[in-house]
Amino acid sequence: MEHELPAEALPHPPSVVEDGATDDWSKEDDDPMAEDHPQPSAAVTDLVDPHLEDTKADIQSGLQSLQLETGVKDKKAITDENAEGLDDKEENKKRHFNVVFIGHVDAGKSTAGGQILLLSGQVDDRTIQKYEKEAKDKSRESWYMAYIMDTNEEERVKGITVEVGRAHFETENTRFTILDAPGHKSYVPNMISGASQADVGVLVISARKGEFETGYEKGGQTREHVQLAKTLGVSKLVVVVNKMDDPTVKWSKERFHEIESKMVPFLKSSGYNVKKDVQFLPISALFGANMKTRMEKSICDWWSGPCLFEVLDSIEVPPRDPNGPVRMPIIDKYKDMGTVVMGKIESGSISEGDNLLVMPNKASVKVLSIICDENKVRRAGPGENVRVKLAGVEEEDILAGFVLSSVDSLGHRTQCFFSDTSDDDKLFILAAKPIGAVSEFNAQLQILELLDNAIFTAGYKAVLHIHSIVEECEVVELLEEIDTKKKKDADPRKKKAKRKPLFVKNGAVVVCRIQVTNLICIESFSDFAQLGRFTLRTEGKTVAVGKVVALPPAGSPAFA
Question: Which residue ranges have biased composition labelled Acidic residues (predicted)?
Answer without folding.
Answer: 20-33
